[in-house]
Design brief:
Elements (H helix, E strand, L loop, with lengths): L4 H8 L3 H8 L7 H14 L5 H8 L4 E5 L4 H4 L4 H15 L3 E4 L5 H13 L5 E4 L7 H8 L4 E4 L11 E3 L2 H14 L5 E5 L5 H16 L9 E3 L4 H11 L8 E4 L2 H13 L9 E6 L12 E4 L2 H17 L7 E3 L3 E3 L17
Parallel strand pairs: 1-2, 1-3, 3-4, 4-5, 5-11, 6-7, 6-8, 8-9, 9-10
Antiparallel strand pairs: 10-12
Length: about 350
């Protein structure tokens, strides 16, 4: 037979209602009583019926997390496991659970979130991306369902709580670093143009080039998925040009790994032949050789703060929209150096 609240009450000499209050961490119960009851619960092997408690509280104590693409693809990028770890560290402390979207296509992901909302499976949703004209964002807003975006919203910026870095400033500072090292032929490699993180970082790149009086060739901008394969595709494009770049601003560390790997296969070395600056400072960026010069965006903190903001919204329906900007900094390592003016032939 399973252990009940009554069994715990008998073992500790308190009423069943007092045991219930201890489970709910009611501040009116003394620390001594809480300690005694919790010790009995542990020794007896009692576990509260979470579903029953949540039904009374009209809360699932669960949040949904949605990635920009299928879990199979997104989780290849170290950014997403780390931001999920940040979310998890916060919700663990407040005894919430997490449901991760597993749809393979945009349609499947949308239908999955619809089920989460209409089936009351979760109390709120975190979108780990910001995309132009996003169907999910419109749906969640229309339903007046609590949600938070990691990234700057494309629409309703003043009406949606979001957590982000200043990606425009980061893109500009990263590009300025290459300019200071003597580079003028600087290309930008980014993710999908639909993602605001890409367009903000690209706008910063363009602004730095403009302020330095350097024109930007449209051939020097390449967009692919935030995957290692995207970086390899970029190398094939950029280094087949008549005048290939000497410096690269790459919008994601995983893409940078693909670039470095492809360049090595083509007989070029970083930073002797080409300098690279990147973004996100995932754990592998310090281990790879050469170690990446990259923007520290504090991925774990982005996750923690998005979870904190969402749970505040689920508990207080009238919580105003917030704009939470996490500071960034450039971590200078070995992948960027002064321009080697000897130059190299284009990759065939």
């Amino acid at each position: 037979m399973s252990v009940t609240i009554k069994d715990v009450a008998i073992a500790t000499g308190v009423s069943p209602s007092t045991v219930s209050r201890v489970i709910a961490d009611n501040p009116r119960i003394s620390p001594e009583t809480k300690k005694r009851v919790r010790k009995a619960m542990k020794s007896l092997g009692y576990h509260p019926n979470i579903n029953a408690r949540n039904l009374v509280a009209k809360s699932t104590k669960t949040i949904g997390v949605v990635m920009p693409s299928s879990a199979n693809k997104a989780l290849q990028n170290p950014f997403f496991p780390e931001i999920i770890r940040g979310i998890g560290s916060y919700i663990h402390d407040v005894q919430y659970s997490l449901v991760l979207s597993t749809g393979e296509t945009e349609e499947e992901i949308f239908n999955e979130v619809q089920r989460m909302v209409h089936g009351s499976y979760v109390d709120g949703v975190i979108l780990l991306y910001s995309r132009k004209n996003d169907r999910l964002t419109h749906f969640l807003k229309e339903q007046e369902f609590p949600f938070v975006i990691v990234g700057r919203p494309h629409e309703f910026e003043n009406e949606i709580t979001y957590v982000d870095n200043d990606n425009f400033a980061a893109g500009k500072e990263n590009t300025e670093l290459l300019i200071e090292l003597g580079h003028e032929k600087i290309a930008f490699i980014g993710g999908s143009k639909e993602l605001l993180v890409t367009t903000d970082r690209e706008a910063g790149y363009e602004n730095a080039m403009k302020e330095a009086g350097i024109s930007v060739s449209p051939h020097y901008k390449f967009h692919a998925e935030f995957l290692q394969s995207g970086g390899r595709e970029a190398v094939q494009h950029l280094f087949s040009l008549e005048k290939p770049p000497t410096g690269l601003v790459i919008s994601d560390d995983l893409m940078s790994f693909g670039v470095i790997s492809m360049l090595e296969e083509c007989g070029r070395t970083v930073p002797n032949d080409i300098s690279i600056v990147s973004f996100n400072n995932v754990y592998l960026s310090e281990i790879i050789r050469p170690a990446l010069t990259t923007v520290e965006v504090h991925i774990h903190t982005l996750g923690e703060q998005s979870a904190k903001a969402l749970i505040e919204k689920t508990m207080h329906k009238d919580e105003p929209a917030k704009r939470i900007i996490i500071p960034h900094l450039i971590v200078q390592r070995d992948s960027a150096s002064k321009l080697n003016k000897e130059g190299r032939k284009p990759i065939q």
